[in-house]
Amino acid sequence: MKITDIKIGEISVPLKTPFKTALRTVDSVEDIIVEIHTDSGQIGFGEAPPTGVITGDTKGAIVGALKDHIIKSLVGMDIENFEEIMLRLNSCIVGNHSAKAAVDIALYDLYGQLYHAPLYKMLGGYQKQIITDITISVNSPREMAEDSVDAIKRGFKTLKIKVGKDAAMDLERMKAIRKAVGYDVDLRIDANQGWSPKEAVKVLTDMEDAGLNIEFVEQPVKAHDIEGMKFVTDHVAIPVLADESVFSPQDALSILQQHAADFINIKLMKTGGLYNALKICSIAEVYGVECMIGCMLEAKVSVNAAVHLAAAKSIITKIDLDGPVLCSEDPVVGGSVFDNDRITPSDTPGLGVTKVNGIRYLD
Ligand SMILES: C[C@H](N)C(=O)N[C@@H](CCC(=O)O)C(=O)O
Ligand SMILES: [Mg+2]
């Protein structure tokens, strides 16, 4: 199965409500779609969101990396030589993880199609269904409490609450939410780098003292501040999960060696796709550290690949794959089925995606 062409397009999907974090506010998913065509007629699908505030990747940068480096390195290669393709993809340009992820996902899709197996089975086949949380955007305490109650009515049992804008107000936000939802719901929080280490220790200790029962806190401090994250991990009982601080397998190894966090959030757009995400899983397995699988604001193609990874690997015990359920429509035909918090990967070969509607192809 030889690669004959790699097409690039873009999709735009409005969100149900604006997505607000300590880093940004967005109203729609604006993603790059990659289609890898082969001489057998089979197509692999991939996707990359331009999440400049986290990955540094803009739409233009993703398209530039694809056109100027990645596509010309891969056209003509045979999917059977999978390791060689991955080495080439990962060495043809430094950085540019989102562009690499889109292509890596499409290649794994073809890999599954070549061997007639769904990807989650090829990668380990640990379980047939996973359960995701849903994100509550950062707003006033009253609005967030209402959004949390709505999410529970929709069938979600775990909420990922965005905080990190103002520590004192964040405490009020969490008190209002816990009061509104009661104690049968798991609450995890994501500060998206919004606090200083000392602020984080204070507000998290206040949350503990208020009996808010927080499952874990995600990325309390700046991405580069590993010492600061270790300070938080060492001084609060609430477990700390590293997100923006971990892109590569090397980052994961370094954080685990230093005991700077309790858990790792794997996202395909940080790792550059499944090839490196699998390496992080192995490192975490060695250390016995559980992982979360997360996503950016992405539609169902790339989140679908994350679903397959999560269903394959036992070390992934926390799921934050709510991108598609935040969207007001689903342009992707086939693939995993999202039913409120339950996600079931398809049992067709590869990712199971057959078409993406509404693609505007780029020359
Ligand atoms: C969408 C997901 N639940 C999430 O919160 N992902 C990121 C932020 C993604 C973005 O800004 O696009 C996270 O920080 O965990
Ligand atoms: Mg996060």
Brief sketch in words of this structure:
The chain is an alpha/beta fold and 363 residues long.
Give the CA-based shape: globular
- Main beta-sheet strand count, sense and barrel state: 8 strands, parallel
The total of helices stands at: 14
Which CATH architecture of the largest domain is right?
Answer: Alpha-Beta Barrel
How helical, in percent, are the residues?
A: 40-55%
Strand content: 15-25%
Bound small molecules, deduplicated: ligand LRSVPJYC, magnesium ion
Q: What do we call the CATH topology of the largest domain?
A: TIM Barrel
Q: What count of domains describes the coordinates? A: 2
Structural class: alpha/beta
| Regions with little confidence, pLDDT below 50 for 5+ residues | none
Radius of gyration (Å): 20 Å
Average pLDDT, all residues = 98
CATH superfamily of the largest domain: Enolase-like C-terminal domain
Strand order of the largest sheet: 5-6-7-8-9-10-11-12
Distance between the termini: 24 Å
Highest CATH level, the class of the largest domain:
Alpha Beta
Instruction: Please tally the β strands and state the result.
Output: 17
Question: What does the model show?
Answer:
The two termini are 24 Å apart. The protein has helices at residues 52-55, 59-74, 82-91, 97-114, 119-122, 141-153, 167-181, 197-209, 226-235, 249-258, 268-271, 274-287, 300-312, 323-326, and strands spanning 3-20, 25-38, 43-48, 130-131, 134-136, 158-162, 186-190, 214-218, 240-242, 263-267, 291-294, 316-319, 332-334, 337-339, 342-344, 353-356, 360-362. The protein has two domains: 3-117, 2-Layer Sandwich (Enolase-like, domain 1); 121-356, Enolase-like C-terminal domain (TIM Barrel). Helix 2 packs across helix 4 and helix 7 (167-181) runs parallel beside helix 8. 41% of the residues lie in helices and 25% in strands. The strands form four sheets. The chain has an eight-stranded parallel beta sheet with strand order 5-6-7-8-9-10-11-12. A four-stranded antiparallel beta sheet has the order 3-2-1-17. It has 363 residues and is of the alpha/beta class. The model has no long low-confidence stretch (mean pLDDT 98). The structure holds ligand LRSVPJYC and magnesium ion (MG). Ligand LRSVPJYC is lined by residues 21, 24, 51, 135, 160, 190, 192, 243, 294-297, 320, 322-323. Belongs to the mandelate racemase/muconate lactonizing enzyme family. InterPro entries: Dipeptide_epimerase (IPR034603), Enolase-like_C_sf (IPR036849), Enolase-like_N (IPR029017), Enolase_C-like (IPR029065), Mandelate_racemase_C (IPR013342), Mandelate_racemase_N_dom (IPR013341).
